[in-house]
From TrEMBL:
This is CsbD family protein. Residues 27-38 have a biased composition (Basic and acidic residues). Belongs to the UPF0337 (CsbD) family. Gene3D superfamilies: YjbJ (1.10.1470.10). Residues 19-43 are annotated as: Disordered. Pfam families: CsbD. InterPro entries: CsbD (IPR008462), YjbJ_sf (IPR036629). Residues 6-56 form the CsbD-like domain.
């Protein structure tokens, strides 16, 4: 995967995670809230991976 792909997936995971987290908070659903936080963290990791790939020219 390239930098753009990682960053696109990161944005999707961050958005979906934020939605899940918000719904979980609004409905007092701790499980859904935790899933949302985990998905946002996954998106952050993908974003970092994309940035590293961009810095190294997709050579990794």
């Amino acid at each position: 995967m390239g930098e753009a792909t990682d960053k696109l997936k990161a944005a999707g995971n961050k958005a979906a995670g934020a939605i899940k987290e918000g719904i979980g908070k609004a409905t007092d659903n701790e499980r859904l809230e935790a899933e949302g936080k985990a998905q946002k963290a996954k998106g952050t990791a993908q974003d970092i991976a994309g940035s590293v790939k961009g810095a190294f020219g997709d050579k990794i």
